Amino acid sequence: MIAVDALTVQYGELRAVDQVSFSVFEQEIFGIVGPNGAGKTSTVECIEGLRRAHSGKVSVSGLDPWKDRKKLYEVMGVQLQDTAYQDQVRVGEICALFSSLYRSPVPYGELLEIMQLSGKEKAFVSSLSGGQRQKLAIVLALIPNPRIAFLDELTTGLDPRARHQMWDLLLQLRERGLTIVLVSHYMDEVEAVCDRVAIMDRGRMPAVGSVSEVIGRFALHTEISFRSSLERTGGLEALPGVVSVGRKRNRITVQGRGDETVLAVLEHLRDRGIDYAALAVKPPDLEAVFLNLVGYSPSGESPRADEKEVR
Ligand SMILES: Nc1ncnc2c1ncn2[C@@H]1O[C@H](COP(=O)(O)OP(=O)(O)OP(=O)(O)O)[C@@H](O)[C@H]1O
Ligand SMILES: [Mg+2]
């Protein structure tokens, strides 16, 4: 559905997107994640025909988004990261306006109902809450009954229930044939709905694949943690697959390679009669990939001042 080949976006001296290539298949939900300023929106804008690439090739459903923009807008729905409407317009009016622009729009009443905005048709856009505005932006993106939808930070500002409802909606839309490109900062969201995900970092795309393929590519560690009064952790460090052992207050965290380490730690605790509570095993997830990419260590190798006394 989408083919991107060596796409480069340049803003003056800054190369925001650097020779990025990937494809998106029909009827898949494709996620793009990465730190602020990585080049996600710039990439998506080129696919949407809103920005001209410096070099490289983009094709959407066989069309060149820059040259065939008019045709493309017949099949594409776009939710922009910062949508600015005229505030002194009512919800129903802007929906009617959008509907009038397309040949076979989805009846917007249905979309408003799904987004729980039915009661707001007469309300001014300026009077909506942040989350309601976000929902309205999604309604407007879906009005054209598109074959491809671009959603940039879809659920930012939505409450937890609304986020889950939105995920259900995306999966339903995919079943009905929609291809979706989703830019998100929520790793749980990407894990919940995306068939494949691309990681972007400083204009490049170091990994593309299913969530588990991408996680596997980074060779991250499984984390086993538990509360214990254990004084010396030497025994744990010597176990097979263990990479590091740390302690924060009375919680001990062991980092290691996969299931081998988990079993070894459990056996060690049992065999030595070591007391432990609140045991947790955390295999590497997309969040860990992200934090690793930006060089942040959540287990905090260096102890803060208030933790030193318990060491
Ligand atoms: N119109 C512009 N003119 C100049 N520089 C820009 C422009 N738009 C984006 N940039 C720069 O390009 C880089 C990539 O921006 P982009 O908006 O694509 O990032 P992003 O991955 O979408 O980030 P975020 O997660 O914060 O939305 C940033 O350094 C940004 O400052
Ligand atoms: Mg962005």
Measured by DSSP, the beta-strand proportion falls in 25-35%
The description of the largest β-sheet is: 6 strands, mixed
Number of helices: 12
Helix content: 25-40%
CATH architecture name of the largest domain: 3-Layer(aba) Sandwich
Q: State the order of secondary-structure elements, H for helix, E for strand.
A: EEEHEHEHHHEHEHEEHEHEEHEHH
Strand order within the widest beta sheet: 5-6-7-3-8-9
The secondary structure category is: alpha/beta
List keywords for this structure.
6-stranded mixed sheet, 27% strand, 4-stranded antiparallel sheet, binds magnesium ion, Rossmann fold, 33% helix, alpha/beta, disordered C terminus, Alpha-Beta Plaits, binds adenosine-5'-triphosphate, 12 helices, 311 residues
Structural description of this entry:
By secondary structure, the protein is of the alpha/beta class. It has two domains: 2-216, P-loop containing nucleotide triphosphate hydrolases (Rossmann fold, 3-Layer(aba) Sandwich); 221-308, 2-Layer Sandwich (Alpha-Beta Plaits), CATH 3.30.70. Helix content is 33%, strand content 27%. The protein is built from twelve helices and 13 strands. The strands form three sheets. The chain has a six-stranded mixed beta sheet, with helices on both faces. A four-stranded antiparallel beta sheet has the order 11-12-10-13. Helix 6 (160-175) links the parallel strand 6 (148-152) and strand 7 (179-183). The chain is elongated, with a radius of gyration of 24 Å. The model is unreliable at 301-311 (pLDDT under 50). The protein binds adenosine-5'-triphosphate and magnesium ion.
